[in-house]
Amino acid sequence: MILRGNRKSIQLLCGINKFEAPLLMDVTGRTRIAWRSDFRDFLLNRYQYWKDFEQFKFPLLCFRNMSESQYEVSFETSKL
Fold first, then answer.
1. Is it the case that residue 15 has pLDDT exceeding 90?
2. Cβ-based neighbour number of residue 73 at 10 Å
3. Is the CB of residue 58 less than 8 Å from the CB of residue 50?
4. How wide is the angle at C-alpha 30 spanned by C-alphas 4 and 47, nearest 5°?
5. Cβ distance 20 to 8 under 8 Å?
6. How far is Cα 52 from Cα 8, in angstroms, rounded to an integer?
7. pLDDT at 9 over 60
8. Residue 10: CB atoms within 10 Å
9. Can you tell me the distance from the alpha carbon of 23 to that of 2, in angstroms, rounded to the nearest whole number?
10. 8 Å CB contact between 36 and 20
């Protein structure tokens, strides 16, 4: 559990890859994951051709809580 105005370190798991990221809750109660450049680069590499997706079709990031500090990241393609 994270309290307003606080942060905790978590791991994002994607296949065999692990990425460190802070989980933040601001004073209004909004929770954010502020992943670092290594995970950003992983996403950019995995979806380097995102502009070629069909209109209104895009990859979704799904986060599944595995433990108090680990989240499995998976990718789905959705169409609105």
1. no
2. 21
3. yes
4. 130
5. no
6. 36
7. yes
8. 22
9. 8
10. yes
Residue with tokens 């450049």: 37
Q: Rounded to an integer, what distance in angstroms lies between the CA atom of residue 35 and that of residue 37?
A: 7
* 3 state SS of 38: helix
Q: Are 50 and 59 in contact (CB under 8 A)?
A: yes
Over residues 21-71, the pLDDT tens digits come to 999 998 888 999 999 999 988 888 877 666 566 655 666 788 999 999 999
Token pair 């606080």 is found at 6
Please give the radius of gyration of the chain, using alpha carbons only, rounded to the nearest integer.
Answer: 14
Tokens 């502009």 correspond to: 51
